[in-house]
Structures are given as structure tokens and as C-alpha cells.
Amino acid sequence: MNKLNRHFAAVLVVLLVAMLFGCAPSSKEPKESDSTQNDSSSSTDASQGNEQVELILSTIPGPVAERLVNDVEAFMKENPNIKIKINEFPEAKYMDQGPRLFSSSEKPDLAWFWADADYKKIADAGVLEPLDDMYQSEGWDHVLPQSTIDRVRAKDGKVYAVNTEIVWGPVVYYNKAAFEKAGVDVPKTMDEWYQIGPKLKEVGYIPLVSGNADVGVLILSGLLANSFKPDDYVKLTNSEIKDPVNNYNHEHVVNAFDHVKKMGDELMQKGAAGVNDTDARALFTQGKAAMYSNGSWAASDALLGKELPKDFQLGYFYYPQIYNDIPPKVAVYAGNSLLVMKGTGKEQYAKKFLTFVMSKERQKVLAQNKQLFPSRIDLSQQDIEPMGPLYVDMYQKMNELGVMNFWHTEVNSELSTAARALVPAVMSGQKTPQQAAQELQSILEKSK
Amino acid sequence: MESGMKQMNRPVTIAYWLKSLWRYKVSYLFVLPSVVLFAVFMVVPLVRSFSYSLYDWDGITSPQFTGWGNFEQLLKDEYFWNALKNNIIFTVLTTVFTCLFGFLFAVAIDRRLKGWAVFKFTYFIPVMISMTVVGVLFGKILEPSFGILNSLFGKLGLESLQLAWLGDPDLALYTIIGVTVWQYSGFTMLLFLAAIEEISPEIHDAATLDGVSGFKRMTQIMLPIVKRVVFMVIMLQIIFSFKVFDIVWVMTLGGPGSASEVLGTFLYKTAFRSEQFGYASSISVVMTLIIFTISLIYLYFSNLGRHEKE
Fold this sequence. Notes:
The complex is a heterodimer of chains A (448) and B (310).
Chain A: H1 2-22, E1 53-59, H2 63-78, E2 82-88, H3 91-102, E3 110-114, H4 117-124, H5 132-137, H6 140-143, H7 146-151, E4 161-163, E5 165-169, E6 171-175, H8 176-182, H9 190-202, E7 206-210, H10 212-215, H11 217-225, H12 230-237, H13 251-266, H14 277-285, E8 289-294, H15 304-307, E9 314-318, E10 330-333, E11 336-340, H16 347-358, H17 360-368, E12 373-374, H18 381-384, H19 389-401, E13 403-405, H20 407-410, H21 413-427, H22 433-447
Parallel strand pairs in A: 1-2, 1-3, 7-8, 10-13
Antiparallel strand pairs in A: 3-11, 4-11, 5-10, 5-12, 6-8, 6-9
Chain B: H1 2-8, H2 14-23, H3 25-52, E1 55-56, E2 64-65, H4 69-76, H5 78-110, H6 116-128, H7 131-141, H8 148-155, H9 172-196, H10 201-209, H11 214-225, H12 227-242, H13 246-251, H14 263-273, H15 277-302, H16 304-309
Antiparallel strand pairs in B: 1-2
Helix pairs in contact in B: 3-15, 4-15, 5-6, 5-9, 5-12, 6-9, 12-15, 14-15
């Protein structure tokens, strides 16, 4: 029996070694003939336009999904032979696992996704359908800013996504009644901002709430946008540029982290580092907090628009000036995009939906429904007025101040992931501003 | 005897093997589904994970072979050591307290203390609730400004206890441990109760006649008798606690900063946020080796294995 056991063990070891060498990771490029599970419900001879076609569209819930639901319903009315099914994924999970989904056999036909570093990797891996022909045929190259188009350009020079709406921030929403009660005004500098904190506390409000546990990086992005002149900011966010500014030990970066700490200590409640965005917004809508920091999307009817009481007097301001010689700016994000997956056999139908969503008419409807802000720049003042006075005012003020891209959407995923943890770490005193800045610098140097 | 010895000395050839396989074919058939499931869901992922750990791979582009590079990087990674330290703290405290409370609850129920029937049900309810639900629920209860707990302390005049349970880096991990102990003490209670109720009533009667106190009955009579079950439960709790992920993720995401980061959350962030699948796989390999080593050491010193043979 001992010999039998030894033989058995030997065979087991051989099998394990074989599995080891046979199980190396591989990346597979989709072929034109690749089919997905969706094909079973669609006809291959759909070019006639008479056969029923089903498309799968993946997205995140909230304002984005609500908007897409409206677009899909309207599209299906006009195209009864095309059925679109929307799959919603929790935002954090989608952000983390979307790229793998798009490269797998379970991929959707269309996807809403963020055109960041991950998007470029997906595009370079060849899983997306190029849209250059559509930019020309639909005139998108004239109605979208050049910077927006360049953002979605991959290494091969082609574009694989189209920006469907823009968001910006960080925005500080405030309770006008609370400000009136405390006798304070909208701050124009950071010092003024810290000074209104105790006055708001005196009248029973938490001065400021923010989802530091999950979206705290927005605060850092906003502070960095106000800490550098535009050219220097571009250098900071582009790791390929060798310049003294491209160093996270720069005093302005350390100072930004200093402000993160100070905001936590002087404006937020005890334990704010552990509060998530949903709880933060709940404190604001329930009238317990005077200010709430998030992005422009929070003003939509899907979030604050439906959560605030009817008589709530909502105001807003952008992050105040930090340095006398650096005017404050607003960080804008034009990466919310629709992508078409390659190799599904239904690319032409997916593109048809893209044409529909990006049409001037649908972009106007987006504004009328007060969901998200349209990405087309050829809409008139009248077209965007239905967004409501707050949104329109935010948009105009943003254009007056000038825009820069969000820091955390421009840098590599390691830096943005680290920053997500560093903001609450600095706020809670776990790390000093200098340590946090040094950590970002170490990651930057490692990635070069 | 000679024919028996001849049988033992018979060479083990493939033919002999196949003959043995055929002779016990029905037995192998019954065992096959378990073996296949084990292989598919345990062995294959384990081997694949080890294979991935030798590569630098973002999950999208082509992998690059790095050999032991990921493991070398891991040893120098302060976040890894921080997560490991938190994991050890979590494992030790969760195991000690769930086993302790579980045992005490089981004894209380077995000895039919007042309200035992209610306790039996009440202590087990948390176990039936999903860990994710528990995490979300306690996230609301422990909210620093208006959560139920701090509001209650405020009403009772205990403002000094109104702490930032999940926002204070010194407290967050221990808060999560407390919630886990609350949830899983009922599970260990059930296991201990099953073992304790097997103790013969005559032993208890003899102890009563001898005038043994409750504490001595528990520690010197019941505990030695159910020793094997205790050792087994402790080992299961160690393994379970070391793999923790969901409750930490839901309650704090490993924060604030990395104050409550454990290996599970560190692995997840490394894989899906930093997109380093190879590096994340090396973390999982190390986790597996640690759990394996702890289990082996524990089995050796607890004599559980030897007891089986006896």
C-alpha cells in the first residue's frame, strides 16, 4: 500500500505541474467571428432591418441609468425591431471589473463607461469598435470640444468612445437657511471657509459633510486644481513629462493635503473620515449639515433633486481660492462615454443607438429631464434652461472660472487608488500631509 | 502468512492499479462528484492563482513573466505588512471572543438558566443574517453624528462614549471585530451546545451530589469532555477569520486610510483597483500558505489528528 500511495502521489504531482504550466494567464483578442451569449437572441441576417435584434447595454445605476432608460425607450419606439436590455452594475464594482467584462465572452454590445486609463487599455487591447467614421458622418467632431475628442483617442490614433454628458466639481451645495441663521456668507478663500465653520456649529449644524470614505478623492482633485496654474497642472498629471512640477513632494501638493486635514478638523464632524457619500448626503438633505461636497451630478433629479424637501433653499459654490496668484478653477470630466464592443456582430445597431443618443434632439431631452448635462456645445441657452436655474448658473460660472480635468481621472489607476485611501488617512491623522505626498511620489516613480 | 507477505511484496504496476480501480469502481463512482467539485473549485483555482502570481498582468493586456518578483515586492510592501498585522489581530480577537461567548452561551442554555429558550433562538438570529446586511446595518448604527448608538449615549448623558467608531483609525478595526463577534457567537454556541448536550446526565448528577460549583463544573468537567469539539471550532474560526473580507469592505472599505485593511480587502484593491492581478495572486498564495501553516501547527499541537487514529 505504501508503494501504491507513492505512485498515486507521483501522479498527483505530475498533474499539478502540468496544470501549473498549462494555466498561465492569457489575454485573448476578439475575432470578428467571436459570438457572445447574446447572439442566440439575434438574427445574423439583421442587415435587412426587419429581423429582431437584441442589444445588451451595461451601465451604472443612478442618473446615468435613468437617462439611458429614457433614451432606450425612445429609441425602441422608433426602431421596433431593435430591443435594448440594460444591465446595471454597482458603480464601484463596475469601475473595478468593467474592463474584464468587456474582454470576456460575457461582454455587452454597448457599454457606458469612464474614458480614463482603463478605457485606453481596453481600446489598445482591441476589444472596442472604432468610431472615427461616426465622428465625421454625424458631425461630432464639430459639436464636441477637441480636448474631449483627444481624451478618447487611443494609441493607434483612433477614437473608440463618444462623450455623452459632462460633469464637473467639486461643488459645495449649501443650505441657504443655515447660512442665514448663522449669519455667514459664501466664502471666497479657504480661510473664510474655515471661519464660517464655528458659526455654523453654534447654530447646530455640521458645517460640511462629504463621502470621504468612498469619494474623498474629489476633495483632493478640487484642491489640486486650485493649487496649480493650467500648464503646471498638466505637467503634474502627465507622468511622461519630466519637470520639477511633476513631483508630488511639491509644496502645493503637500499644502493640498494640509487643507484636506484642516477641512476634516475644522469643518467636518468627528469621524468624518469613515462617512460614505450616501450617509453624507442624507445628513445634508435632512437638514443636519449645512454644506455638502460632491460633483455637479448630485444636483440632478436622481439625487438631491428628488431627496431635498420642496422648501429647501439650495445654493452652491465652487472650492475657494487657495493662492493669490492662482485663480480658482473647476475640474470638469468629459469622460462619461458610450462604447461599442467589437466582435458581437451587432456593431451597426449599437452605432445606430449611439447616433440617436448623441443627436441634438436627445441632448435637449437630457436637459429637459434635468438628468445630466449635455456634452454637445452647440446647444443654445434656451436648450439648457430646462436644467433649472441652479444647474444653468453652475454651468455658466464654471465657464467663467475656467476648467481643468479632474486630477484623479488623468493619472494612472495606482495613483488614484492610493489617493482614495490617502484622503481619509490624512483626515483621520493616520498619515501626515508630507507622508501622503511622499507616497504618491513613490508610486509615480515606480510607475515610470 | 507467506501468501500475505507475497501479496504485500507484489510490485505496484499500472495493471495492478487498474485492476484495483475496477474492483472498487462503485466506491470511486460515489466519491467522484466530490473529487471533481473539489478539483474544479479548489485545486484548479489554487493552481491558477499560483501561476498568475508569477506574472505581471493587468487583466487586459498580455502578461509578462516576472518569476518571484511579485513575492519580493510583497515582502517590501508596508501595506501588506499592515494588512497582515490587522488580519492577525482580527483573527485572534474574533476567535477568542466568539469561542468564549459561544461556550458561555452554550453552557447557559444547557444548564437551563432563566430564559434559556429565548437565548437559544436570539443568539442564533445574527448568524442567519447576511454579513453584508449586518455591515450596512451597523454602518448606520455607528454613524458618528446621528447614528443610533451615539444618539443613545447622548440621551444617557454619556457624551464621552460618543466616539467615531468607524472613522477613528484606532477604533475602526476593533469596532468591526465587535460586530463580527456579535454575529458569529451564535454559530459557535450551536456547535458547543451540540457537544455539551452529549455529556451524560449521570456525570452532571455526580457533580451535583459532590457539590461542584457552576464554574468548576464548566471548566473541570464539561470543558475537558468537549475538548475535541472546542479545538475543532477554534481551528474553524481561525480559518474563517483569516479570510475575512465582506464585513470589512462594507463597513469601512479597509479605511480610514488603511486602519482596518485586511489581506482580503488589500487583495481586492490590488487586483481590481490597481489592476495588478499577478501581484494580487501572490497575496492570495501567501494567504493560503499562512492558513495552511497555521492549520498544520494547530493540528499538531491540539492532537486532533492523533486522537482520530486512536
